[in-house]
Automatic annotation (TrEMBL):
Residues 8-46 form a coiled coil. The chain crosses the membrane at residues 86-114. This is DUF4342 domain-containing protein. InterPro entries: UBA-like_sf. Residues 149-175 have a biased composition (Acidic residues). Keywords: Coiled coil, Membrane, Transmembrane, Transmembrane helix. Residues 146-175 are annotated as: Disordered. The keyword Coiled coil applies.
Protein backbone atom coordinates (compact mmCIF):
# COMPACT_ATOMS: atom_id res chain seq x y z
CA UNK A 1 0.00 0.00 0.00
CA UNK A 2 1.22 3.46 -0.84
CA UNK A 3 1.80 5.80 2.12
CA UNK A 4 0.32 9.27 1.60
CA UNK A 5 1.13 12.59 3.19
CA UNK A 6 -2.30 12.63 4.86
CA UNK A 7 -1.57 9.28 6.51
CA UNK A 8 1.79 10.56 7.75
CA UNK A 9 0.17 13.76 9.09
CA UNK A 10 -2.53 11.71 10.83
CA UNK A 11 0.09 9.52 12.49
CA UNK A 12 2.21 12.51 13.49
CA UNK A 13 -0.82 14.21 15.06
CA UNK A 14 -1.29 11.19 17.33
CA UNK A 15 2.35 10.31 18.08
CA UNK A 16 5.21 12.75 18.51
CA UNK A 17 7.55 11.51 15.74
CA UNK A 18 9.34 12.88 12.69
CA UNK A 19 8.02 12.50 9.14
CA UNK A 20 10.67 9.89 8.45
CA UNK A 21 9.74 7.82 11.52
CA UNK A 22 6.04 8.08 10.68
CA UNK A 23 6.61 7.05 7.04
CA UNK A 24 8.78 4.10 8.07
CA UNK A 25 6.25 2.91 10.64
CA UNK A 26 3.42 3.12 8.10
CA UNK A 27 5.45 1.26 5.46
CA UNK A 28 6.35 -1.48 7.97
CA UNK A 29 2.67 -1.89 8.85
CA UNK A 30 1.28 -1.67 5.29
CA UNK A 31 -0.46 1.66 5.90
CA UNK A 32 -2.29 0.55 9.06
CA UNK A 33 -2.20 3.64 11.30
CA UNK A 34 -3.19 1.78 14.49
CA UNK A 35 -0.44 -0.82 14.04
CA UNK A 36 2.05 1.98 13.28
CA UNK A 37 1.06 3.77 16.52
CA UNK A 38 1.52 0.54 18.50
CA UNK A 39 4.94 -0.03 16.93
CA UNK A 40 6.07 3.52 17.68
CA UNK A 41 4.86 3.29 21.30
CA UNK A 42 6.80 0.04 21.73
CA UNK A 43 9.91 1.72 20.38
CA UNK A 44 9.39 4.60 22.79
CA UNK A 45 9.06 2.19 25.76
CA UNK A 46 12.25 0.43 24.72
CA UNK A 47 14.00 3.79 24.47
CA UNK A 48 12.91 4.82 28.00
CA UNK A 49 13.84 1.38 29.34
CA UNK A 50 17.26 1.71 27.77
CA UNK A 51 17.70 5.17 29.31
CA UNK A 52 16.70 3.81 32.73
CA UNK A 53 19.20 0.95 32.40
CA UNK A 54 21.91 3.37 31.37
CA UNK A 55 21.14 5.65 34.33
CA UNK A 56 21.20 2.66 36.71
CA UNK A 57 24.53 1.56 35.23
CA UNK A 58 26.00 5.04 35.73
CA UNK A 59 24.71 5.13 39.32
CA UNK A 60 26.21 1.73 40.03
CA UNK A 61 29.57 2.83 38.60
CA UNK A 62 29.49 6.05 40.62
CA UNK A 63 28.73 4.10 43.81
CA UNK A 64 31.56 1.69 43.04
CA UNK A 65 34.03 4.55 42.55
CA UNK A 66 32.79 6.31 45.69
CA UNK A 67 33.09 3.13 47.74
CA UNK A 68 36.59 2.55 46.39
CA UNK A 69 37.57 6.13 47.25
CA UNK A 70 36.07 5.89 50.74
CA UNK A 71 37.77 2.56 51.42
CA UNK A 72 41.23 3.91 50.58
CA UNK A 73 43.56 4.71 53.48
CA UNK A 74 46.74 6.72 53.87
CA UNK A 75 49.26 4.89 56.04
CA UNK A 76 52.41 6.46 57.50
CA UNK A 77 54.83 3.94 58.96
CA UNK A 78 58.45 3.37 59.82
CA UNK A 79 59.67 -0.19 59.57
CA UNK A 80 56.89 -2.30 61.12
CA UNK A 81 55.26 0.37 63.28
CA UNK A 82 52.24 2.27 61.92
CA UNK A 83 52.16 5.89 63.09
CA UNK A 84 49.18 7.14 61.13
CA UNK A 85 46.30 5.37 59.43
CA UNK A 86 43.60 7.73 58.16
CA UNK A 87 41.04 7.63 55.38
CA UNK A 88 42.62 9.06 52.25
CA UNK A 89 39.89 11.65 51.72
CA UNK A 90 40.70 13.24 55.09
CA UNK A 91 44.42 13.38 54.28
CA UNK A 92 43.65 14.87 50.84
CA UNK A 93 41.42 17.52 52.38
CA UNK A 94 43.99 18.44 55.03
CA UNK A 95 46.73 18.56 52.39
CA UNK A 96 44.68 20.93 50.23
CA UNK A 97 43.84 23.23 53.13
CA UNK A 98 47.37 23.34 54.55
CA UNK A 99 49.35 23.03 51.33
CA UNK A 100 52.70 24.65 52.31
CA UNK A 101 52.86 22.93 55.69
CA UNK A 102 51.82 19.60 54.16
CA UNK A 103 54.59 19.73 51.55
CA UNK A 104 57.19 20.45 54.24
CA UNK A 105 55.80 17.60 56.38
CA UNK A 106 55.92 15.15 53.46
CA UNK A 107 59.55 16.02 52.69
CA UNK A 108 60.45 15.80 56.39
CA UNK A 109 58.81 12.39 56.79
CA UNK A 110 60.60 11.08 53.70
CA UNK A 111 63.96 12.37 54.97
CA UNK A 112 63.39 10.70 58.35
CA UNK A 113 62.79 7.33 56.69
CA UNK A 114 59.02 7.04 57.00
CA UNK A 115 57.04 5.20 54.36
CA UNK A 116 53.84 6.68 53.01
CA UNK A 117 51.38 4.27 51.44
CA UNK A 118 47.95 4.54 49.94
CA UNK A 119 46.17 1.30 50.77
CA UNK A 120 42.97 0.06 49.14
CA UNK A 121 41.07 -3.13 49.55
CA UNK A 122 38.99 -2.63 52.64
CA UNK A 123 35.48 -3.74 51.88
CA UNK A 124 33.20 -0.91 52.92
CA UNK A 125 29.78 -0.11 51.67
CA UNK A 126 28.76 3.52 51.72
CA UNK A 127 25.10 4.11 51.09
CA UNK A 128 24.61 7.87 51.09
CA UNK A 129 20.82 7.70 51.37
CA UNK A 130 21.01 5.46 54.42
CA UNK A 131 23.55 7.75 56.08
CA UNK A 132 21.56 10.92 55.33
CA UNK A 133 18.42 9.27 56.71
CA UNK A 134 20.28 8.22 59.85
CA UNK A 135 21.70 11.74 60.35
CA UNK A 136 18.26 13.29 59.82
CA UNK A 137 16.73 10.93 62.37
CA UNK A 138 19.45 11.74 64.95
CA UNK A 139 19.02 15.46 64.32
CA UNK A 140 15.26 15.22 64.80
CA UNK A 141 15.66 13.19 68.00
CA UNK A 142 18.13 15.73 69.38
CA UNK A 143 15.96 18.75 68.56
CA UNK A 144 12.88 17.04 70.04
CA UNK A 145 14.83 16.31 73.23
CA UNK A 146 16.01 19.93 73.46
CA UNK A 147 12.47 21.23 73.02
CA UNK A 148 11.11 18.84 75.67
CA UNK A 149 13.78 19.87 78.17
CA UNK A 150 13.22 23.58 77.51
CA UNK A 151 9.45 23.14 78.03
CA UNK A 152 10.09 21.29 81.31
CA UNK A 153 12.41 24.05 82.47
CA UNK A 154 9.83 26.71 81.55
CA UNK A 155 7.12 24.83 83.50
CA UNK A 156 9.37 24.49 86.55
CA UNK A 157 10.24 28.18 86.39
CA UNK A 158 6.61 29.23 86.11
CA UNK A 159 5.69 26.95 89.08
CA UNK A 160 8.46 28.42 91.22
CA UNK A 161 7.36 31.95 90.26
CA UNK A 162 3.80 31.08 91.20
CA UNK A 163 4.92 29.74 94.61
CA UNK A 164 6.95 32.86 95.33
CA UNK A 165 4.07 35.18 94.43
CA UNK A 166 1.57 33.17 96.55
CA UNK A 167 3.43 34.00 99.80
CA UNK A 168 1.45 37.19 99.96
CA UNK A 169 4.27 39.53 100.87
CA UNK A 170 7.21 40.63 98.83
CA UNK A 171 10.30 41.45 100.83
CA UNK A 172 13.04 43.74 99.75
CA UNK A 173 16.15 43.60 101.88
CA UNK A 174 18.80 46.30 101.77
CA UNK A 175 21.94 45.73 103.74
Amino acid sequence: MKVTLEMIDELRSRVNVTYEEAKEALENNEGDIVQAIIELEKQKKNYHGHRRQKREHINKDANRVLNKFLSTDFVLRKKDKVYLNLPFWIVALITLVTMPFSLVAIVLFLLLGYQMRIVTGKKTKFDINKNVDRMTKKFKETTDKIFEESEEMAEEESESDAEESSDGEDEITIE
